[in-house]
Amino acid sequence: MILPIVGYGDPVLRKVGAEITPDYPNLKEIIANMYDTMYNAYGVGLAAPQIGLPIRLFVIDTEPFSDSENLSEEEQTLLKGFKKTFINAKMIIEEGEEWGFNEGCLSIPDVREDVYRNEKIILEYFDEEFNKITSSYDGLIARVIQHEYDHIEGILFTDKISTLKRTLIKKKLQNIMDGKARPDYKMRFCNKKSR
Question: Which reaction does it catalyse (predicted)?
């Protein structure tokens, strides 16, 4: 089922997500709905706070990045096959040179900015079956994970840009809060007046 995506300004996007247990109510259904919602919005990642749940859960499928001409054949193959669910994720290490990439967010439609992140990470998490995994990632996969991980920490990509750039996009952010943004997917806006 496709759910509305929570828009910028909603307090749930600023909460640090709570850890969950295997008996969390309707967990399999929530995960399936998150994938449906992400695909419907042409996203590559979606975190539970973006559907209004302040829990440590996010899903990723990097296949849309796999057809980029700037990537090696090896990286294209990695991106094409990378679809994972992350539960109770904990960042162990962020290392390597920081590199910039133009990021966007389904909760912040029509806003894109260059964000600098470390090139390599080590992450500990549970998969859908609650198997504990510790794995290292780099490149675009690491970046998508870091972006979604920030969501479960109450951090948005706009927090990682300069004060000047934040000032320049202030009106766009206000329009999102007021429900004036018009993405081609369902959204829930925090200040929108019901008619």
Answer: N-terminal N-formyl-L-methionyl-[peptide] + H2O = N-terminal L-methionyl-[peptide] + formate
State whether residue 169 is helix, strand or coil: coil
pLDDT score at 190: 86
Residue 183 near residue 169 (C-beta atoms within 8 A): no
- Which is the catalytic residue, given 74, 95, 148, 153? 148
Q: Contact 138/99 with Cβ under 8 angstroms?
A: no
Residue 193 maps to a domain: no
Show the DSSP H helices in the chain as ranges. 27-40, 73-80, 139-152, 163-168, 170-177
Is pLDDT of 44 > 50?
Answer: yes
- The domain of 24 spans 5-188
Residues that constitute the known binding site for Fe cation? 105, 147, 151
Per the annotation, the verdict on 148 as an active-site residue is: yes
Q: How many domains does the chain have?
A: 1
pLDDT band at residue 193 under the 50/70/90 scheme: low
